[in-house]
Amino acid sequence: MRCGKSKITKDPHPKPSPASGRGDVRCGKSGITKEVAVIRLMMLIAISCMLQSCASAVNSRHLEEGKQDFGAGNFKQAFHELLPVAANGDAHAQYAVGYMYYYGYGATQDSESGRFWMQKSADQHYGPAVRALQMLK
Q1: Which of 3, 12, 39, 71 can pair with 8 through a Cys bridge, CB separation 3.0 to 4.6 Å?
Q2: What percent of the chain has pLDDT over 90?
Q3: How many CB atoms lie within 10 A of CB 132?
């Protein structure tokens, strides 16, 4: 049997497991039991999920700040707030960054970059981006 890249070995001094009555199965050189390895994996998954939700909250905050800055005419600040959110895959931010590039709001006018970001947004079926790209053809 294999456990990761290490061989699974039987404990030389088995202690009966309450569930199976057999000795503990240990993974490779580390000597951790299969149950401990599973618990560690579950903890890693839980921590990853928590970090992802924190990132989502930060993205939401930057998106809202960027929209407010854009509405107030602070285009450079809006671009600064929205670009990282767009890079993280938010369709609304991708469309906004594309729009700002295309028309030169808060960034040097660059129609190629504008189309790139609008296309990323349209690929996620974001309606305004889909319609904008149709109009630009």
Answers
A1: 3
A2: 50
A3: 20
Between vectors from CA 123 to CA 119 and to CA 125, what angle results, nearest 5°? 115
Q: How many residues in total does the chain contain?
A: 137
Write out pLDDT tens, residues 87-116. 999 999 999 999 999 999 999 999 999 999
Q: Which fold has domain 58-136?
A: 1.25.40
| Number of Cβ atoms within 10 Å of the Cβ of 23 | 14
